[in-house]
Recover the amino acids of this structure.
């Protein structure tokens, strides 16, 4: 299928080059909005605006919703006020919230002014929800049905309003106070006899979320129950919006990327990598690297204290990298498995004892094998049995410790209400390093009779 | 909503404890299948079987599809042949494929024997597709419509077969050879006049994937186009199955978890963490740790070579952990950002030059700041200007190098057709360590006039 898409893109380029704009418009109208957005992304700003203006209004808005942050900002700034107003008025409200999140406050203020009072109210309501909440990413464009309707009445309502709705495959039954009574699938409405009351077709205990719920948790709920659409309720249990499956996919991907970055010690970067400036990226990565340096104060202090050991037996220095790396890597491995388990819901706080005991056993197995190999290496270097034993014992200790620390810290974080993914690689690595070095030199001191 | 679910679960426990099985069955019938599966998971095997048998057949099969691997195996082994046959015959075919993947080959053979010839053919066809392909995870339970149908004819077909289909919200129009002609949304069928030909309502250039396509790529395509369902075609372009949005969510989560594990140097673990035995986990983590040890041969070799420098100026040893950790962490940071960018499609192979230049600048900025701080630390320890300068320069070099190596290697992997996520933390760390140590000691040698 990539070849088909590639051919179409090549045709677009050809027609554009030949200024055959009528044919180009016709071709664009056969393309998927996201593919048109891809083509526009690759173009310089002036050409992008031109191509965008070729598109019929509805298609243009769909394409606009697929463009990236900076591209949308550029397009808006080259539009007339009337053009900009038309686009944002017609956008789906959840994509509009995402757009406003990306734009500078001044621009948002100006655009809000151009909205109709109705849309402005919706836009403001959504924007005011906390940024990582379900309320912030929901849409208000859902089908709500009165609880007294029959199947045929429901179908009429659906037919009349379908074009303005995010989805019609799940409909939401509400009372006069707009409180959620149940959800009903389009499938069931179609398969029912026309007189069947909708209240008899609906799920009276639907899965739902709240406006205040964290979006990652809401995504987890939708994913757990395989929901195509999920109602979002306010504090009075009124239906105020819905989340749909495509929102969830985006949330899952973004949250996974954030966790990846945290694990590597990067404060999550909001813009895409290519959009983010060098200074922003430096700042985001600097924090944890600074923590590294600060804790290195401890490691250099330890080594300074044991300088006498290094001066007596310089071979002790040969294995410091091995100790540092092995402890850090194994700690990161344990932490990764536990953090990922906690995030996907596979592990819960109750599992901590089982996990710790598993990790300790693993630590001894891995540490034992690696320690034996490291000791063997020391032996082949002719360092003498004292060093060989020291290296072997220390590796076992460091690996076991790494496992313990790496698996324990995410649970501890969760206990204190912090996101376990905060327990990053650099942090765990330095904790394990410090303890590992102490163990190494204390073992060396005793076995080699130093100091 | 968690409180509501918790209350229901408490009621289940209460009724079970009081042996009020009729009331318990009624309660279970009001619950979501995935919640019933959660309750069963927490129970010892004997009770689990008992509770499972309480459920009416259709609900039982839905619940079965939500249980974990080992639980399903246990249940099946406690069923009579007739019970087991009933469950697997009625299961949706894609969940059955997943089940067979988890079971030992002997059990699968036995179960296949119990299937009707029709279902056995489907089961075998799906099983034979490569394990990570779209074909392996697709379902054959889709609505196919003849291209000559009208909207009302289509609706009749849908009504008749809906109960056996994975989804009815997207229907697939095929010709007599079962080649895909287009896809049509239920929404459009409903909104059309009854006589409208389906061929006029359909998308004639639908987005599709192939049975051989990697499932992660297929998931990316569905995600990109926000598809609720996507057709899967064989080599002759015949429609053989579909993927639905809930499959994709699972794939995205599993692939993210695999990438996390690879980044930490763990060969992906197929079972869930709690199910995996200690020996399996050891083996999966051992591979990369072994690579660590092997490359440590080089680092200990380097240090042995520069033993003279360490003997002359023992303070050089104090900063080895700092160098090792900083280089490793920064390399992992760069690699994480690039790998994640390549995986989510945000970065492509063409971006390599832009990324490398960005990373080099970042390396110098970060390295410069960190190097200054490290040099300051060395100064406060009274190590003398030679060491201070050596530390400062080496940190700058190691951080820049770490960035370069960390960002370059995923691109290189992709170039050679390997998954960029293979470029794990341990691997990059050791490469950066080795080069970093060489730089450190060579700078030291010259600045301090050693050897």
């Amino acid at each position: 299928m990539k070849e088909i898409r590639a051919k179409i893109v090549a045709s677009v380029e050809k027609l554009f080059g030949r200024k055959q704009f009528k044919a180009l418009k016709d071709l664009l109208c056969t393309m998927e909005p996201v593919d048109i957005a891809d083509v526009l992304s690759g173009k310089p700003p002036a050409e992008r605006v031109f191509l965008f203006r070729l598109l019929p209004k509805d298609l243009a808005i769909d394409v606009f919703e697929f463009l990236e942050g900076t591209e949308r900002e550029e397009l808006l700034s080259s539009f007339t006020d009337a053009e900009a107003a038309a686009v944002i008025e017609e956008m789906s409200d959840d994509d509009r919230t995402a757009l406003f999140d990306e734009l500078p406050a001044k621009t948002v203020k100006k655009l809000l002014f151009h909205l109709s009072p109705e849309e402005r109210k919706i836009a403001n309501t959504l924007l005011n929800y906390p940024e990582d909440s379900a309320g912030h990413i929901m849409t208000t464009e859902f089908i709500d049905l009165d609880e007294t309707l029959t199947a045929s009445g429901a179908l009429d309502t659906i037919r009349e309003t379908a074009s303005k709705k995010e989805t019609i495959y799940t409909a939401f039954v509400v009372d006069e106070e707009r409180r959620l009574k149940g959800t009903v699938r389009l499938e069931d409405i179609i398969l029912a006899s026309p007189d069947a009351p909708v209240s008899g077709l609906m799920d009276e205990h639907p899965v739902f979320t709240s406006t205040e719920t964290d979006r990652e948790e809401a995504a987890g709920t939708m994913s757990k129950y395989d929901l195509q659409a999920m109602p979002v309720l306010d504090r009075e249990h009124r239906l105020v919006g819905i989340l749909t499956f495509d929102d969830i996919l985006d949330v899952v991907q973004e949250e996974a990327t954030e966790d990846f970055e945290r694990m590597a010690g990067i404060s999550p970067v909001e813009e895409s990598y290519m959009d983010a400036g060098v200074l922003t990226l430096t700042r985001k990565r600097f924090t944890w690297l600074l923590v590294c340096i600060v804790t290195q104060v401890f490691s250099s202090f330890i080594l300074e204290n044991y300088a006498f050991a290094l001066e007596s037996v310089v071979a002790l220095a040969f294995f410091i990298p091995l100790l540092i790396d092995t402890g850090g890597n194994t700690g990161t491995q344990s932490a990764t498995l536990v953090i990922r388990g906690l995030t996907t819901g596979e592990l819960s706080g109750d599992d901590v004892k089982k996990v710790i005991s598993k990790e300790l056993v693993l630590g001894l197995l891995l540490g034992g094998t690696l320690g034996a190999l490291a000791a063997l290496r020391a032996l082949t270097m002719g360092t003498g049995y004292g060093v060989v034993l020291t290296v072997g014992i220390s590796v076992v200790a460091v690996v076991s410790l790494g496992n313990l620390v790496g698996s324990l810290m995410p649970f501890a974080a969760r206990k204190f209400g912090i996101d376990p993914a905060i327990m990053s690689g650099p942090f765990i690595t330095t904790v394990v390093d410090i303890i590992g070095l102490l163990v190494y030199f204390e073992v060396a001191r005793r076995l080699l009779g130093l100091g």
Remarks:
- The beta strands of chain B are 144-146, 170-174, 180-185, 209-210, 229-233, 239-244.
